[in-house]
Amino acid sequence: MSEIYKKKNKPLFLHDYDSESKIFIDRITFIVFMIIFLILLLIINLYYIQIVHHNNYNIKSDKNRIKLIPILPARGIIYDRNGIPLAFNRNCYQLELIPNNVQNIHNVVLELSNLLGFTNEDFKKIQKQYKSSQPYNSIILKNNLNEIQISRFAVNKYRFHGIELKAYSQRYYPYGSTLTHVIGYVSKISKKDINYLKYNGNYHNYTRTDNIGKLGIERYYENILHGKLGYKEIEVNSRGKMIRVLYVKPPENGKDIYLTIDINLQIKIKNLLATNRAAIVVTNPINGEILALTSTPSYDPNLFVNGISIKEYNRLLNNPNYPLINRTTQGLYSPASTVKPFMAIAALSENIININSTIFDPGWWQLPNYNKRYRDWKKFGHGKLNVINAIIESADTFFYKLSYELGIDRISYWMYKFGYGKYTGIDLFEENQGIMPTREWKKKYHNVPWYQGDTIPIGIGQGYWISTPIQMAKALMILINNGKIKIPHLLHSIDNTSSIITYKQTDSIKINKGDLHYWNVVKSAMYGAANLPNGTVNKNFINAPYKVAIKSGTAQLFSYNTYENIKIAEHLRDHKLIIGYAPYHKPIVSVTIILENGGSGLSIGDITRNIFDYVLLKHDDYQINE
After folding, report:
1. Where are the membrane-spanning stretches (predicted)?
2. Is a pLDDT exceeding 70 seen at residue 95?
3. Distant-in-sequence contacts of 313-321, Cβ < 8 A, 24+ apart
């Protein structure tokens, strides 16, 4: 009864339909508003996509659909002064594949390797390209195919779907090692090159498979020779396969350039030098044109065009004769007695001596207040000497005294004017500054003061003084032009399609306003060295049909009383040097030569005579252009 009572007395709850209806309507309203809000949000988003950001998304869409394929420009040809090609592009053949067009690349490469004989280097190159390639960009499987390889592929082409035989342009140097240090070479672009191009804002004009000048003229005039990249605009499908070509912008080919070099003279000099380690610079002193620039030994630049093997590169790198060094611009030598004419100009200009000043040479000169004696190359001396005879006979004692009286400050001041201790301005990046020593230089690099004894050997181009052959050649041109500076250069002209742009020598700056007579005195002394009986190179020019002016020198590696030259190892023997020009009264050719360790075969005087004969007697096309 009590349970029934409880049930009966339990409160009863009835539905409040008005309240529930309100809650339902509120929920529906919220959902509707959310839907409207989301629709509005979608509309706004579509507005921004379709209207506000239309161009951006359109570009992105095109990038997925439209691809740019670079078209390489033809590199400019390099000619000598007479129009003979020194570096040009020749057609070669290579095998290419586009990854999206080949199903099993690994198997295809192995089959081709069995057919054509791929090397380990080939596999490495393929792997490197594949890692960084795009589906629509071609991969080079093997380049520089020979005739047998081309024939084998042609016969078996049906087996290799998606593989194409394509012609391409490859740089070629027909004269091999004869011009390596002048022309240089091109090779595949490296990460270092890419960083350099990006830094200079030129990377847009290159591809990662492009060639770039690495050395010499090819490097110095890269911007002129390379040209401008073209491109092909193609449409591709979702799988990256080409549908059609939309637009082609042709590349702008590189410009041809003409050098001042005479290749036939260059070949003759190479033959004269044979196996010698040597550097020769031949110039037209009136306008600074370099007719020949020879450094031996050398190497074939064609080795580097497709990428030199590690084995071959190490062979060059470890060669004790250093063929990779351009001796004419990078070789460092004591200028020796070739500096005596320039020392004489300095002393005359500073009134240290005059034309009539004389000394008596007993075969040595003693530093005042010291017991130290500096010996002459001539054991019993030259007797009474003035500046002219001192140059003719190359008397060391005269210039020991001159050096002492000038002092290192004035010597370095004047020799710097002649171009020693600084870059010459030649259009090659591969150049050393040499060392024109000063008090400050010795303190900086040796942390000791300059002593009087350091100055004396400077007077004969020894001691701390080292220079390059191109510096000696420039100093000689300044002397020939009575103090006017001429920049040695290799560029003759640029073929600008519609016109020829000829190299213009900068306005001549004179190193001093001294007496013209001083220059003539020194040049007459150099004339005597080649033409008078007591001249140091008289025997080589006694019967020449033209007159020359010469100064020879010997860069000593040991003191006079230490050894006899023929009794020591060749690489320890003295270097032989010579500077000179001809004809004496109207120069059109000047020569600077260094034979390391004296050379072998022809003497340095004979080589000089042969060069002068070639230019003056066998050719009349060396024009003097002011």
Report:
1. 28-49
2. yes
3. 320/571, 321/277, 321/297
Q: Give pTM, 2 decimals.
A: 0.84
The answer to whether 180 touches 299, Cβ cutoff 8 Å, is yes
Q: What is the DSSP string of 456-480?
A: GGGGGT-TT-BB-HHHHHHHHHHHH
Quickly name the fold that domain 263-617 has.
Beta-lactamase (3.40.710)
Catalytic center residues: 337
Confidence tier at 26 by pLDDT (50, 70, 90): confident
| Fold matches, 68-259 and 263-617 | no
Rg (CA), the chain: 38
User: At 97, which helix (H) or strand (E)?
Assistant: strand 85-97
Residue ranges of the alpha helices (H) in 212-306? 216-220, 222-226, 263-273, 302-305
Is 8's pLDDT higher than 60?
A: no
Identify the pLDDT of residue 5: 44
- Tell me: pLDDT of 61 over 70: no
Q: Domain coordinates of the chain in residue numbers?
A: 68-259, 263-617
Name the band, by pLDDT with cuts 50, 70 and 90, for residue 541: very high
Question: Model confidence over 302-320: pLDDT tens digits?
Answer: 999 988 888 899 999 999 9
Please check whether the domain covering 68-259 is classified as CATH 3.90.1310.10: yes
Tell me the average pLDDT across 16-21: 72
As beta bridge partners, residue 489 has 289
Q: How far is CA 255 from CA 189, 203, 337, 444, 507, in A?
A: 20, 19, 43, 46, 26
What pLDDT shows up at residue 1? 45
Amino acid identity, position 315: R
Q: Is 547 left (phi over 0), alpha (psi -120 to 50) or beta?
A: beta
Contact criterion met (CB below 8 Å) for 279 and 328: yes
- State the Cα torsion 431-433-434-436 to the nearest 10°: 160
Question: Please, are residues 509 and 484 in contact by the beta-carbon 8 Å criterion?
Answer: yes
